Amino acid sequence: MTLAVTVCQNCGSRRFRADRSMAGRLVCQNCGLAAGSRAVGSTSRSTGRSNRKLWLVILLVAVIVLVVITS
């Protein structure tokens, strides 16, 4: 029996251990998330979009503050 190479969907690590308290389910050694599951409230697609929106809002606020200060 061969094990498939598994990558943690939360942190990208390839280091897993079998957790006996979870009936032998594989758990990431870096972040503790069970293999095959995602962190609550975050997906890889939405994280990139929300980061871009956050930086856009910060940039917009900085520009408005600069305009108010210089005028």
Number of helices: 1
**Strand portion, in percent?**
5-15%
The helix content, as a percent range, equals 25-40%
Main-sheet strand order equals 1-2
Assembly annotation: single chain
Total number of strands? 2
**Which class of secondary structure composition applies to the elements?**
alpha+beta
The arrangement of helices and strands along the chain is EEH
Largest β-sheet summary: 2 strands, antiparallel
The domain tally reads 2
| Mean model confidence by pLDDT | 79
Q: Which value, in Å, is the CA radius of gyration?
A: 20 Å
Shape field:
rod-shaped
Low-confidence parts, pLDDT < 50 over ≥5 residues?
none
**What is the first-to-last residue Cα distance?**
72 Å
What's a concise summary of this model?
Helix content is 38%, strand content 11%. By secondary structure, it is α+β, with helices and mostly antiparallel strands.
